[in-house]
Amino acid sequence: MVLNKRQNDLLKIIVEDYIKTARPVGSKAICELLDCSSATIRNEMAYLEECGLLEKTHTSSGRIPSEKGYRYYVDNIMKPKELTGEDMLKLQTIFSNNSLMLNDTIIRSMEIISELTSYTAVVLGDDSSLNKVSKIEVVPLDENKLITIVITDKGHVEHRNVVMEKNVPMEEIRKTVELINNLIVGTPIDEVSSKLEFEVKPIISQYVKQHEVLYKAFYNAFNNFASDVSHETPFKLKGTSNFLNEPEFSNDADKIRKIVSKFDDNNIVSSIKEEDSGINIYIGSENSFDDDVTVIKTKYKVNDGEGTIALIGPKRMEYDRVIALLDYIKQNIDKNS
Amino acid sequence: MVLNKRQNDLLKIIVEDYIKTARPVGSKAICELLDCSSATIRNEMAYLEECGLLEKTHTSSGRIPSEKGYRYYVDNIMKPKELTGEDMLKLQTIFSNNSLMLNDTIIRSMEIISELTSYTAVVLGDDSSLNKVSKIEVVPLDENKLITIVITDKGHVEHRNVVMEKNVPMEEIRKTVELINNLIVGTPIDEVSSKLEFEVKPIISQYVKQHEVLYKAFYNAFNNFASDVSHETPFKLKGTSNFLNEPEFSNDADKIRKIVSKFDDNNIVSSIKEEDSGINIYIGSENSFDDDVTVIKTKYKVNDGEGTIALIGPKRMEYDRVIALLDYIKQNIDKNS
DNA sequence: ACGTAGCACTTTGGTAAATGGAGTGCTAAA
DNA sequence: TTTAGCACTCCATTTACCAAAGTGCTACGT
């Protein structure tokens, strides 16, 4: 499929106009821009429709871009936009605030982007289930309560409160922790609970008097690390509602419900999986979140792990601006890590 | 305002019917139930409307309860319902699962309630800014990265990754931590950063060589505890979308938007503040969340802190059932803590 | 004094018809 | 290859209309 210059220009005009107004674009409005008559435009439009790049909402309506049309626009027509001074300024104040941890900086800056664009921002933390245990700490709180803290090699920290059925002398606890530390360090976090069961349990029961109650306490604590999904891949959502102001949703209660439900589910995590390290754009059915939206996302790496940031918006997203914004954040993350 | 028996019965019937059907209740449907003619019912209805307990949606519609009507119903008419076997069974399986931490049990059981009722569940953790520091741990990750972990007297754990600009010998770090521990333990968490500035800084700079870089690292870490709202009062939301299926919202895109926006804001935390320890019901304008909803909430206390659980639903909430459900959870929390 | 039958009146909600406007496709001419 | 012109299509909005549901009020009976 090859487009000549005029067809290219026409597609650009239609996509950008539709992105701006959310209304089907008619031939008349375009004549002046391309310096020819509406009939000519109509002919070209018909051709673009034949190519699958445009669609009509009904037989005599103006044209709107098809999914393929957006894709063509993004791949071949659009040029990433320069960030406006205003946008940049807002983000700059976040990144230049040294008292924020990088992680918080990322979350905060995605919040800003969400406000700026009125799309929904998603920040997916790293998947700690692949991390390996690097240290276990135990802090006694009072007679029969402990806090167990697990630190992984990538700096991920998990903790659990443990209530023991009986009081156990500190010395016993210390010994147990030492044993566990020796055996568990280096184990991927999602294998810990089975390793506890089959390797640690036999040994503890040999060396420790109150092994029953202690083992149970630790087992419960660790068992949780694996099963608690929300801790495995922490994520932040911001701006769920901005979204709903987009005209294509604003009057359609069913669509709103459908999309809000999807945000409500924790499946976002799985539908926003990261891929290669560039900025990836998934338009409509290309993403596994919802056919009516575009997901644009990118991976980032920081000293202590990696993650994904994403924006979810309507298919008629301001692609050029969003790419510039994400790119800016990505660069700043790299610089700061 | 005093109601005779028939008026009382009538209000009960109207409220419960409206809760069930979401449709204005007409006089004819009631005659059989109260064994009198529709005209009589209409007279009584007019009286209840005069009292402010009922409303009409238009001049010739049936009646719906007013806010005051719901309030009267809840205070004077409704009897808390027995839990059905089915509801109880579902919750029982959560509470009898010993491998879950109590905290997770609470969250899980509120999720169940959300599914059962199709209202939105909120779990507010305890406000750790009032906790006092009970211990500070530091785990070195590699040459210039540390993890600082702060444990409070109520078992709350916070942690931050710290990147130091230069490498600092372990011995220096150890000494610093010891000093900080001595000075900070017992300090409320939201006062830590000022105490660091004015009491700890002078002392560190005396005893520790690389005090500049170390102080900065710790200061940044602690400064965050106070400023990061989401960590201060952690909360979980479940079932935002269930809500939207209620008939009074289902066709009103504006209302949906309005309420979803409120869930999106973190203001929920402030609008769901706990009060006394019973089960509190806030109907419509009585709550600070939204005039179109009822918020029903209760405080719970557990070994390592306290929190609030709440349900947000339409004003025509199944009050009797919801109260029974919350009460059941509350009792189980008390039993298990 | 209370209850009720009857009736006129109001509002809603749904369906049908009428109308204007925006936009297309096609044809024929430049 | 472009364009003017025209017939046609579909949408959106307005208007009209009707049945259903329900009310308030009046007048009558006990």
Describe, in plain words, how this protein is organized in 3D:
Two copies of one chain form a homodimer. With 337 residues, chain A is an alpha+beta fold. Helices cover 49% and strands 19% of the residues of chain A. In chain A, the strands form three sheets. A five-stranded antiparallel β-sheet of chain A has the order 7-3-10-9-8. A three-stranded antiparallel β-sheet of chain A has the order 4-5-6, with helices on one face. The first copy, chain A, has a two-stranded antiparallel ribbon with strand order 1-2. In chain A, a hairpin with a 4-residue loop joins strand 5 (145-152) and strand 6 (157-163). The two termini of chain A are 43 Å apart. At the A-B interface, strand 4, strand 5, strand 6, helix 9 and helix 12 of A face strand 4, strand 5, strand 6, helix 9 and helix 12 of B. Chain A binds a DNA duplex (30 and 30 nucleotides) through helix 3.
Characterize this entry briefly:
The structure is a homodimer of 337-residue chains. Chain A is an alpha+beta fold.
SSE diagram, text form:
Two copies of one chain form a homodimer.
Chain A: H1 5-21, H2 28-34, H3 38-50, E1 54-56, E2 63-65, H4 67-77, H5 85-95, H6 102-117, E3 120-124, E4 133-142, E5 145-152, E6 157-163, H7 170-184, H8 192-207, H9 211-227, H10 229-232, E7 235-238, H11 247-250, H12 253-264, H13 268-271, E8 279-283, E9 293-302, E10 305-314, H14 319-336
Antiparallel strand pairs in A: 1-2, 3-7, 3-10, 4-5, 5-6, 8-9, 9-10
The structure holds a DNA duplex (30 and 30 nucleotides).
